[in-house]
Amino acid sequence: MLELGIVELKNLITNKKTTCEALTKAYIEEIKKSKTNAVIEVFSDAIDLAREMDKKIAAGFSGKLAGVPIIIKDNILYKGHVASAGSRFLADYVAEYSSTVTNKLLDAGAVIIGRANMDEFAMGSSTETSFYGPTLNPLDTTRVPGGSSGGSAASVAENLCAASLGTDTGGSIRQPASYCGLVGIKPTYGRISRYGIIAFASSLDQVGPLTKTVEDNALLLEVLSGYDQHDETSSHEKVDNYTAYLNKPIKGLKIGVINSVEAMVKGEQTEQAYNKFKNFLVDSGAEIVPVDINNMELVLPVYYIIAPAEATSNLARFDGVKYTRRSPRAKNIEEIFTMSRGEGFGSEVKRRIMLGNYVLSSGYFDAYYNKARALQYQLRQEFLSAFKKCDVLVTPVARGEAFKLGEKANPVDAYKEDVFTVSANITGLPAISVPFDNGKNGLPIGMQIIAPHFSEGLVYTVADYVEKHKNLKN
Amino acid sequence: MQYDVVIGLEVHAELKTNTKCFCACKNQAGSEPNTNCCPVCVGLPGALPILNKFAVEQTIRAGLALGFDINRTAIFERKNYFYPDLAKAYQISQLVKPICVHGSLRVGDKVIPIHRIHLEEDAGKLVHGADGNTLIDYNRGGVPLIELVTEALQEPHIESAEEAIAFLEKLRQIYIYAGVSDCLIEKGQMRADVNVSLKPKGSSTYGTKVEMKNIMGFKSVYRAIKYEIERQRDILDDGGVIEQETRKWDDDKGENFTLRTKENSQDYRYFPDPDLLAVEISDAEVERIKKSMPILPDELKARYMNEFGLSEYDADVLLQFKHVSDFFNECVAEYNQPKNVCNWLTTEIMARIKTETGAGPILISKQNLLWLIKNVDDKKINRLNAKEVLSKVWGTNLNSEAVAKQNNWIIDIDNGALDGIVKKVVDSNPNVVAQFKAEADPKILNYLVGQVMKEVRGKASAADVMAKIKELLG
To answer: In the β-sheet with B77-80, what is the strand arrangement from edge to edge?
Structure first.
C-alpha cells in the first residue's frame, strides 16, 4: 500500500479500505526503519492530526488531499515545528507561522508527517552539505539522491510518504527527481507563493511537488498554486485545472531541441537516453525542431552570480542576535555576528556568501552582477523567441545517473551538475523532470520538458504521455 | 584666507501612515516595546515585504510640495549591513531609481536645489539597560522614512549654519503642511545628516567633504556646523589637508570626533530587492495626488498678506504652527475680519499655547472665540472683559456668552443713557477738562474714560466712551 501515490491512496481512504491514521502510522514505521537519512524529523503531532482528519473525512470532508500523508522540505515553515533549512544555525528554530504552501496543503486535507533532509540552505546538488549528514539514494545507497531536495525525493522513492514538497532554485527539485525516478516540477516563477519559505535566491526560488506519477504532480500543483497577498512576486494568473491536461496525444506537437545542448550532452551518461527520448517523441508523432539559444553556455556563470548575490543578503538575517543559534563564546556584538555565523554556517554556505559579497561589492558590481542581470534578460528573450518556433523544449535533466557519495567534492564539479536545469530558473519558465530511461548502472534518468510561462498544463500533457507510453515504445 | 562654505544636508523624516512601509503593523510611536511587530518587520525566515502604497503616495506628496519630478518607475534596493537593530541585516531603500528627483526649496532669497527624495524603512531601536544588557525594540523597524538629499554640485549652496537651520525649519513646515510627516524632532521623526566642505573663496573646485551623522535637534545641527566650519578653517589656515571622513557630533562636549575614515567606509552592496516589484506610478495617480495637495505655507502667506492685508510678521506667526493657521483659516471662513481674528490669535492664543519646543493645542472652540471677537467688534463686550472670559473658558467646556452674562459683562446700556453718564462725569471733573484744554494731551482724558467705565461697571466700550468725551469737549 505504501508504494501507492496520492490518487490511489485517496481512493483507498475514501472507500474506507484504510484510514489516514493507519497510513500515517505505517509510513512512520517505515521512516523509523529507514537507513537513508531522508527524513530529519517525524512530527510528533502527525498521528493525532491523522486521527482528526479521519473524523473530518467521516463527517464528509473531501479535500483534494484528504488524508494523504506528505513530507515537506526542511526550509518550508510549518507553525510550531522546527524548520532548519538543513543548517546547524537554525537547528532549534521553531516556525512562528506557517508558509502559504503549508496552509494550502493542510486546507486540502494533507497530513504533514515530517521534514525532509536537504543541502544546507538549499545550496548543493547532493544533500551532502546538510548539517544532519548526507541522505542516501534509496535505489543505491552508495549514491546520492541528488539535491538540494534530496530528502524530499528519497522519502517518496523509499515510500516514506505519498508525495513531498521540494524547492528549486537551480534544479533542486528536478535533478533529485531524475536521480530517484520521480516526477518533479519547478513551476513558473510566481506560480506558487514563496511566503514562509526560507529564502535562498528570491528571484529564482520556487516550491514544487515531487511525486510518483504525473497525475499526482498535477493534482498537487493545483493545490499549491495561486496568488498570495503575502508575496508580491506571486502571480494573479488564473490557476489551471492541471489534471485536465492529462491523457492527451502529443501528435503534431513541435518539440524544440537546443542546438548548444546537443553539444553539451555529447559524451555524458545521459546522451544515449536523450537521443532515445528524441526518437520516442518522433515515434509519437511529435515534430523535433532545432532551435538556437545564444549564450546558453553562460547560464552557469549567470546563475552562480545572481544566486549567491541574493543568498548573501537573504542569509544576513541569520546573525545570532534574534532566533538563530548564538555562539556561546561571543562576548560583544561584533563577536555575536562573526562567531555565530562562523559556527552556524557550513562551508558550502560560507563559500556562496563570499561569492555573493564579492560580486555585489563596489568596483565589481557592474562587472559581475549587472552583467549577469543583462545576460539573464537576454537569455529570457532568447527562450521566448524559441517558443515562437516550438511548443516545448526538451533537454536531459542531468549529466548522468545519481553519482557516488563524495564523488563531486570539488565545488566546481558540483556546480556543473546544474547546467541543464538552471536555465528554467533564470528565465522563470516551468520545467519538469519525468523518468524516461535507466543508465548503465540501472539507475533512473529523467528528461526535462520546458514550456512557456504559465503553461504547466502543456508540460503535464507531454510528461503524462511520456510516463504512459515510454515502456510501450522503448 | 577667505573660504566659501558648502553645506549638504540629508534629511530623514518618518512618514505619517497608518501602517508600516512593508507590512500591516501599526506605524505608531509610544507603544509598548515589540507590540507593533510581525514576521515581516522582525525579519523572520521566509517573511516577505509587501509595499504600502500609501507610503509611496506620501513620498510623492512630499516631492510635489517641493517641486520634484516624480519618476514613473521606482525601484527598491537592499542596503546591506549588520547592526542589531536592523532585523534583516539589510534596509529596504532606494538608490538608482528613487521616487522623486530634482526639487528645490526657497530659503530667503535663495532657491536651494534638491537632488532626490527616496522612500526607505526605518530600523528598530536599541535600549541600553542599567545592567549593561542591550534590548531591541522593533516597533520602529519598518516604519516608512523619506530621505531628502540636497544637490552636492549645483549652486546655490547652503553656505552657513543659519541657512542650514532656515532650510530645515522651512522643510519641516512644508512636510507638516503637506501632511506627510508630523516631524516631531524630540521623537526622532526628523533627523539630519550634515556634510561640510570649505574651498578658497571664488574657487570652482569643491573641497573635501566631512560628514556628521544623526544629529538630534536643529540647535545641535547649528552648533555642529559652526564647529566643523571652524575646525576645517583652522586646518586649512595651517596648511593642512581635510580628510574625507564621517565624524560624530558630541553635543555635551560641543565637539566632534572621527567615526569612520574613507578607508574603512562601509560597502552597502546595494542591489534590487528581488522580493519587491518595481513601483509603477501613473500620470493619473500623480495628478490625483496633485489635486489632493493641501495648501502650503508659501501660498498661505501670500494670501494672508495680499488678500487679508496682514503684515509679514503676523503671517509668519500664524504659519509657524499648522494648527494655528488651520484654526485661523476656519475662523476667517466664518467671520471675515482677518485682522481682528489674527490679533487675537497672535497675542492671546499664542501666549497660551507656546511651549519651549513648539505649541500645544488650542483649548477654546472656534465658536467660543469668535463670539468674543465679534462681540468686542460689535461693542457688546469690552476687550478686557472679553479677555477675562477667554481665561475662564480656556480648557473648559464653558460657553463664552454664558460666562459673559453670568458676570454681567454684556454691554446693555443704551446710547442715550451712556451719553448722560459721560456728561455727568465730564461735568463733575472741571479740573481735568481745564487741564486737557490747556495741554491738549488726549492721555489726560483717560482718567475721565476710567471714571465712566467705573460708573457703567465696564459695560461700555472704552473707545466709544473716549469718542463721546472728545465730542462733548469739541
So the answer is: B90-93, B77-80, B271-272
Identity of the amino acid at A217: N
pLDDT, tens only, B77-124: 999 999 999 999 999 999 999 999 999 999 989 999 999 999 999 999
Q: Would the CB atoms of A231 and B49 count as touching at under 8 Å?
A: no
Contacts of A203 in chain B (CB under 8 A): 274
In order of start, what are the domains of chain A with their CATH numbers? Answer: 6-245 (3.90.1300.10), 300-367 (no CATH)
Question: Is residue B165's pLDDT more than 90?
Answer: yes
pLDDT tens digits for range A155-201: 999 999 999 999 999 999 999 999 999 999 999 999 999 999 999 99
pTM for this entry: 0.91
Per DSSP, the three-state class of A414 is helix
What is the C-alpha to C-alpha distance for residues A8 and A162, in angstroms, rounded to an integer? 10
CA atoms of B232 and B240, how far apart (whole Å): 9
Query: Across the interface, do A96 and B39 touch by the CB < 8 Å criterion?
Result: yes
Q: What angle do CA B319, B325, B328 make, to 5 degrees?
A: 140
Question: CB B269 to CB A203 under 8 A?
Answer: no
Of these residues, A10, A34, A64, A73, which one is catalytic? A73
Grid cell 523572520 in the structure block, residue: B44
Residue B131's contacts (CB-CB under 8 Å, 6 or more residues apart) are none
Predicted ipTM beyond 0.90: yes
Q: Which of A76, A84, A127 is nearest to A318 (CA)?
A: A84
Best CATH choice for the domain B415-472 from the list 1.10.10, 1.10.3980, 1.10.3470, 2.60.40? 1.10.10
pLDDT at B215: 86
Question: CB-based contacts of A148: which residues, under 8 Å, 6+ apart?
Answer: A86, A118, A119, A122, A123, A124, A125, A127, A129, A166, A167, A169, A172, A176
Q: Name the active-site residue from A87, A98, A99, A172.
A: A172
pLDDT of B393 reads: 96
What residues does each domain of chain B span?
3-287, 294-406, 415-472
